[in-house]
Amino acid sequence: MKRLSEIGAGTVARILSFENNDLFLKLMEMGCVPGELVKVEQIAPLGDPISIIVAGYNLSLRLNEADNIFVEELGIA
């Protein structure tokens, strides 16, 4: 199990759980729900923010938000 902030560009992962309950509702409203597949599209030159594809749309997350999402890495797509 890894944090979303730890995986590289082009990697597909499945959301497992969240660490911070304060961000839980915000992330769920954006389509980040347990079981959903996400793909890291791009990482900004300085590492923050990252761009992911989740639930069929692009979403930018700050690293502190991505750090609260636990994922299972599935491979590079």
From TrEMBL:
Signal peptide: none annotated. InterPro entries: Fe-transptr_FeoA-like (IPR007167), FeoA (IPR052713), FeoA_core_dom (IPR038157), Transcriptional_repressor_C (IPR008988). Residues 2-73 form the Ferrous iron transporter FeoA-like domain. SUPFAM superfamilies: C-terminal domain of transcriptional repressors. Keywords: Iron. One of its GO terms (molecular function) is transition metal ion binding. It holds the Pfam family FeoA. PANTHER family: FE(2+) TRANSPORT PROTEIN A (PTHR42954). This is Iron transporter.
